[in-house]
Amino acid sequence: MEPEQIECADESSKEIKAIGKDTVHRICSGQVVLSLAIAVKELVENCIDAGATLVEVKLKKQGLESIEVVDNGAGVEEKNFQGLTAKHYTSKLRDFEDLRSVDTFGFRGEALSSLCALCDVSITTRHTSAEIGTKLELDHSGNIKIQTACARCIGTTVTLTNIFGTLPVRQRELSKNIKAEFNKMCQILRAYCLVTKGVRIICTNQNSKGIWQTFLCTRGSQTALANIEDIYGAKEIQNLMEIKQPVEEGKEEGNILDLQDLNTSLDISTSNIELSHLAKFKFEGWISSCAHGSGHKLKDRQYFFVNSRPCEPKQIIKAVNEIYHRYNLREYPFVYLNILTSKSDVDVNLTPDKRQLLINNEKLLILAIKLALTKTFQVVPSTFRPDQTIHSVDLNKTAEKEDDDENFDLTSSQEKFKSMLSQWKATGNTGGNEPIPKVTKRKQMDEITVQKMKLAKIQQYLERDAGSSVPSAKTSPCKVQQNETSKLAIRSPEKSATEEEASSSSPSADTDDYDQPPVKAVKMEIFEPISTTRSEQEVQAIAETHTSSVAASDSDEEPPSQDLVYDDDSNDIGKTFFEESETISITPDEIEALVIREEKLAKSSRDKANLAKLKFKAEINPSKNKNAEEELEGGITKDMFARMDIIGQYNLGFIIVKFDDDLFIVDQHATDEMYNFEMLQRSTQLQSQKLAVPKTLEFTTVNEMILMDNLEVFKANGFEFEIDQEAPATRRVKLLSKPFSKNWEFGKNDIDELIFMLHDAPPNTMCRPSRIRSMFASRACRKSVMIGTALKQTTMRQLIDHMGEVDKPWNCPHGRPTMRHLVNLAMLNDQT
């Protein structure tokens, strides 16, 4: 049967046409609202921008059924109903210049329009000038379908139902991962609860049983510290320290930290710091004390803002944790950091969700943050180490005066370097009469000093190696048709004179490892010109334009014959001016050697081709463990273990198995330990010790909900709780009993870790805290087959079959690999 012929597209289908407005609207809307968290964020931002002092977020079934956001803001006037959900209609921006000073969360006018395209939207609003409210039901294009009068106090209510209903794939993913998406939404919402002052935010959820639960609530306080207390409780406040300013109040200029200590990774020169001093940044923030026990095991309590706008600045987050870990290596801090700077120095229009920002002088900002945190932590007892002494550099001074032997003019040094490098390229001699500037230890990492050191280092290298690269042996003269008396140094035609000059004179290039190819003299005979149409005058003109390639000798003692000198990379001389030919003499032995060499190259090529066909290429080497594990995971499925042939035991510690043409080596102890560990993880329920007096635990409302939804998981880990529904949120849980096991003791930190693991875990997943996992790993190790034990065939078969029953059979709980590929037998047969 002949394959079906695919018809070519007709000419009309190739025509470039504009995409329909409805299609564009749906495509672009999917890029604006990416998740449940972004949908709620956009609505809350609109409420705050409208001047609301009360914002209520009500979800049903964690947002799958509906999302309702209610505020008491100014409402929407009737004349703005049509523009309310129109694309790029907004009251917050008029032209592009306004973007530099925008102080509202939203400014593009696309949030409500995009939500209309993705779900069913209805809006109920009443403006301060209206006597009655209005309910608007909208279609997916943002047009008003139904407009009715209704009772409503001043403010706006936006209701979303069937979220992502127009994008089936995204809706299924949301339903599948609703727990993780809900937690992400709560995390983003907490940032607005913390930074918004004078606004009360309440978030509730109605579960599948119809019970309403409050998971976020603030009192509308005027300080961020009070908001932190509302969200995380008074206990968190006790461990916080206010972040100090990088520059003391009343000082226009400030001191910076020793560049060697903090600044080497930032690549900031003193001159750059002088251009914009640290006083332009102000910080409003709090951070956990660096004293042990004040931080947290996880970094889920870190919030960053720029001019009160929540964001995720990755480099700043990294810098904050880096400084904290200098003092407390085992914990992560709670962080609330609001960076205040000029709005014109911040670009907020980078991503649709506006959570990635571009900040002018970000490296300088990071330096200011490091300075502020170091000053903050210095007052904590027993955290300041002598090797962290802070040295100051006054920003009013351009640079410290250096010794006379360091002071030489940069411009003259660059010119000297250009001349020296050009001379060395042409003749191999730098004329080593010039003294080498003495370079002492740098006092500052400023750009001028770096350039001085690089130039001096290259100058030393050139003078040391001057003349050594030119062979001293005399070469036979070559015959040139033209009666030229100058010595030619021909460069590669691919490299222009401009490129040579740039490569030799650029002081900023990294020339520490500069390696000039040796100049060689060879015996050649040059016959007739390659081109009969090009005149001798043209050739002479071309030669004169390549001044960097022609060096004329004025010596009277120069013989009439010339040596043609060329670089290794000038293997196409004939393409420039002449056509060359060589007479080659070769012996039978040399021919035989060439044949052997060709056979070796062919064999090497075959070996490479065979290697490309192999599934498993990684060597048995600790540095290749990751590659080996990826190959095994991609090349072996669980059902293959039962079909592997047992070859035997090796060295009373390893099992050799065969599958198809591949041989594998299996660590008998590691593989048995992995199986025993997973069995303990799945089936063991730890013993509990009841407390004499139940202990009330304080959680965030979200963590409290996660705990209440996963009581069976906690019970399997030995924790039992009592839930008091009448108690206020964050204090509903009482600990009745906790697990124990000989020398192991468990408590609140293990509960917090387990809650964090359950944030993103799929339903019905058995999670274990790390300390319980360590206990199980120790037990599994002791009960497994030991190295040195002789195994029967049936025992080896059982161990290999068990590898197909575990989730991750490639490493034992302590990190030892269980299995590695040895050799492919088919490849061995090809070689023999």
Question: What can you see in these coordinates?
Answer:
The protein has 832 residues and is an alpha+beta fold. It has six domains: 21-215, Heat Shock Protein 90 (2-Layer Sandwich), CATH 3.30.565.10; 239-381 and 390-394, 2-Layer Sandwich (Ribosomal Protein S5, domain 2), CATH 3.30.230.10; 410-464, no CATH class; 489-581, no CATH class; 588-612; 614-832, 2-Layer Sandwich (formyl-coa transferase, domain 3). Helix content is 35%, strand content 18%. It has an eight-stranded mixed beta sheet with strand order 5-4-3-6-2-1-7-8. Strand 24 and strand 25 (662-667) form a beta hairpin. It is globular. The two termini are 43 Å apart. Residues 252-266, 384-413, 428-445 and 467-579 have low confidence and may be disordered. Residues 469-486 have a biased composition (Polar residues). Keywords: DNA damage. Residues 464-516, 546-569 are annotated as: Disordered. Residues 554-569 have a biased composition (Acidic residues). It comes from Hermetia illucens (Black soldier fly).
Could you outline the blueprint of secondary structure elements for this entry?
Blueprint: H1 11-14, H2 21-32, H3 36-49, E1 54-60, E2 66-71, H4 81-84, H5 111-118, E3 120-126, E4 133-138, E5 144-150, E6 155-161, H6 168-176, H7 178-195, E7 200-206, E8 212-217, H8 224-232, H9 234-238, E9 240-242, E10 255-256, H10 259-262, H11 270-275, E11 282-288, E12 302-306, E13 309-311, H12 314-327, E14 335-340, E15 346-347, E16 358-359, H13 362-377, E17 393-394, H14 410-427, H15 447-464, E18 489-490, H16 497-505, E19 520-521, E20 525-529, H17 536-545, E21 565-566, E22 578-581, H18 588-613, H19 625-635, E23 645-650, E24 654-659, E25 662-667, H20 668-683, E26 688-697, H21 701-709, H22 711-716, E27 720-723, E28 733-741, E29 744-745, H23 748-759, H24 770-783, H25 793-803, E30 819-824, H26 825-831
Parallel strand pairs: 1-7, 12-14, 18-21
Antiparallel strand pairs: 1-2, 2-6, 3-4, 3-6, 4-5, 7-8, 9-11, 10-17, 11-14, 12-13, 15-16, 19-21, 20-22, 23-24, 24-25, 25-30, 26-28, 27-28, 28-29
Helix pairs in contact: 2-5, 3-7, 7-8, 12-13, 14-15, 20-24, 20-25
